[in-house]
Amino acid sequence: MRDGMIAVDDLLLEISDLSVTFDVFGHGYHVLDGISFQARKGERIGLVGESGCGKTSTLKAILRVLPRNAVINGGSVSFSGKDVYKMSGRELDLMRRNGAGMIFQDPSSALNPVFTIESQFLTALKYSSDAGAPRSELYSRAAQALENVMLADPERIMKSYPYQLSGGMKQRVCIAMTIAAGRQLMLADEPGTSLDVTIQDQILRLINQLVQDKNLAVIMVSHSLGVIRESTSYVNIMYAGTIVESGGTEDVFKKPAHPYTVALMACVPKLTGEELSKGIPGRVPDYSEPPVGCRFSARCQFARDVCGRMKPPRTEISPEHFVSCYFAGEGF
Predict the structure, then answer these.
(1) Is this prediction's pTM over 0.70?
(2) Which domains are seen in the chain, by residue range?
(3) What average pLDDT score do residues 292-309 get?
(4) Number of alpha helices (DSSP H) and beta strands (DSSP E) in the chain
(5) Element holding 30 (H helix, E strand)
(6) In what order do the strands lie in the sheet with 11-24?
(7) β-pairing verdict for 234-239 and 217-222
């Protein structure tokens, strides 16, 4: 992706041909198949696709927090030029402290129910920054971060336990903890799921501002094509553990070239109300026995014999716009 166009000092993350299988009772489920993309400082990248296509697994692979039954079959994940899966325990710990942080989709699973927000927030800040920083300084940083995510009365929030907060408030606490830690890469897994529309818009604006002010890199997972279009500069369209199309967000949205991308965008309801949006016929393939060729071939109305037999190559159809389809140039 964008080979030769990214300065070495700017390249933060590089995933190359990553394949992951989950071993479930002795049977392999091939969840990720040849995932490749890069992220540089100050860049906003989107991962979009149907539920179960491997978006969250990709984020977890970056942090090396995949479940124990996950097996890396091939490929690599490099952060700041170092292979994440060859890092020592100390190097990995440092990367998670200051390098990459993740905002999980479910805030309840990210917060410990038996500790106050203050205890968890200050511990996270102490872990990710100078261990000798005074508690008053850490408290001030935490309170400011809570205000930045539009949480009124941060002092009350700090004294609260997670069960005393709504889902949206807990999500904003998790976002604030990631922001305050000052990491280089933010992995956002559906950060607006628990938020109402107005707060979600404010949070997305805040993330975009951080990208500009602190040269932060963001990889954002979302089911919402609207959120991806407004909040990212580069997008990867995922289907069944593969990236079928990638490119500049505006380019991909204006000129989708893969049948899945076209079908996905056709599912978006029209504001005019002229017609009902149609779903994509069929279902995601069984990961235990995925198709040999294109994983979308069974649901693709344009599929031909070769699509089911051979995996399509990744082709650049215009500058920085890549598609994995034999017939992308024919238009759909």
Answers:
(1) yes
(2) 11-327 (3.40.50.300)
(3) 93
(4) 12, 12
(5) strand 27-40
(6) 27-40, 11-24, 70-79, 82-83
(7) unpaired
